[in-house]
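Reopening closed ticket. The problem is back. First fold of the pair:
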Amino acid sequence: MPMKTGLVGFQGGGKSTVFELLTGTAPDPSKAHSGQVGLATVADARFDALVEHYRPGKEVPARIELFDTPGLDPRQQDVNTQRLGVIREAQALVQVVGAFNGADAVEEVDRFSEELALADLQIVSNRVSRLEVDATKPRPDRDELQAELEALRPLSEALERDLNLDGVELNETQERITRSFSLLTLKQRLILVNTAEPDPKPDIAAALEEAGHKVMVAAVGLELELEALDDDDRTEMASELGLTGSCRQELMQAILRTADLITFYTCAEKEVHAWLLRRGLTAVDAADSIHSDLARGFIRAEVTPCDKLLELGGEKEVKAAGLWHIEGKDYVVEDGDELFIRSGV
């Protein structure tokens, strides 16, 4: 299943423009309150080279599921609770901030961060209040409830005190307990500063980076306008505006870095397939992302670094160079690995 990344922010920042640029799908006004989902293909030179090498019958590039979430309303707080609940469905966030018409992008990021923290505080504090009552009752799970209460209290206190969980390192118990909460403040977030003109906004970017944010600046609406032109007009207009390339692929790569995703490949004459996997996960996790049966019957993974495959010319040459290797289920998959999973199922 593709990784789901939420496009988030206040209304009017340009989320839907980013969604259309990356997915090629126009925003659907009927989904303004529930959110709209689309797939964005990851441009990948290694994948293209593997397709050229194997010439398969089918090619499947990596894709990210983009979720254009309902924009928060800074004037009507009562509608934001439901909209923040929708955002929880995403695994990573791209906050789109409009830096035009006199908007203060830094202040808007701070306000949005506060909205996320207050929403998390409500969930955690409500659970703490419930546990403070239930853990005093003579019930068979009293010890478990007390342990959960002790795990959640520090998080509730940090959110109430600092309005963030920065610097809080969750232990195994806290991670397990909060998994179902899908806390917004724990999600990786990229700040996309959306400008009206090609302007890197160095002061804004520097201020946000100093505050600890991952930042990218792009004129998304202008980029979408260029996409609608034919090749000659697009080239001429881009030259006049001083644009040297598309922000689309740069943004896709920034999303991958923010979500801490790597790419591995499965290759054969029948199909070349690119897969996304969270950095640090293992060969059996990679097998599971392909099909649960492969993970259930996992025997071994045959690993070929695709860069070496392309450099040396083929699998025989890679094996001759001693670069092909067999790994068990605990092998940590590296970016660019080509995997062949042996399974007993």
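Second fold of the pair, where the issue appears:
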Amino acid sequence: MAAREVNSQALTAQAVADLVGGRLLGEGETLLTGVGPIDRAGAGSLTFLSSAKYLPEFRASQAAAVLVTQELAAEPLGPRTRIVVDDPHRALREALLALAPEPVPRAGVHPTALIGRGASLGPDVTIGPHALLGEHVRVGARSRLGAGVVLEAGVTVGEDTVLDHHAVCYRGTTIGDRVIIKAGVVLGGPGFGYVPSQEGHLRMPHVGRCIIEDEVEIGSNSCVDRGSIDDTVIGRGSKIDNLVHIAHNVRIGQRCLFMSGVGVAGSVTIGDDAILAGQAGVVHHVAIGSGARVASQAGVTGDLPDQATVSGFPARPHREFMRGQAAMYRLGAILREIETLVRERKRGA
């Protein structure tokens, strides 16, 4: 299979080794024009090997060069051109940035975009077709807004930030520097808050803000509601996958990771470096400590301390949950033994 060439640039193996700070084994003049997975990489492809689990694929690989750990560099079979690094994943990232740089659109405002009165655009800003910027919006230098982006009045966007196509930011939204907002994201919409009455469910006004700090990434079709009487805050460096919902008044710390399908109810506090795996859910008004880990499809119904690792519903310490699951799987055999004893007792009566 040929190398994957998406806006690619050719580099020699020696150039890649120099770029990632690796030690080259083999032919330094080997030309690399793209990347590929270890089992399908072909001529001109760079790939990587980080685990002995994939040694069979490595031995049969047709890749031109491989980023490899010191522990696996001496494998006698497989591609001969190897770049020895401490962390192949990180090295691959650096190589990809050079081999396949992201295309940068030409700065400027598309003629179909609508810019409100008093809006301020920094130098080298890109505004795509049919974007709508309300009054007094501020967009920092070198930021890029895709087609159909909507920024309501007073929204602030920092520098070097990207809002992809059809992202929507309601009033009261503030976005920091070097943020990536993917297509279809909705930020700062009014939350799901109602007051029950004889007339029905009366919507609670939401007057708080939605604050997205620097270097946050938010995946496609995710929603972050603005606060009701407080702010909703996503801390610096946190990364949120596609299809995630963050409710009103939630405060998320720095460098958190939320996988696809996570739902966080209102007024939850989450510390730094927490990880919520796919489809995990958190009920309202709980606190999750720094460094906590919540497994896929777990349901958090109470506070979690720092560094907790939980799974299941209701979420409990992971080892306790696994012991409970193992015990439950033994119940069938235990019940059959009890039924056998009961039958024998009846026959003996």
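Update: turned out to be a display glitch only; the data is intact. The domain at 167-314 is CATH 2.160.10.10 (UDP N-Acetylglucosamine Acyltransferase; domain 1). Helices lie at 13-20, 55-60, 88-99, 318-348. Please close again.
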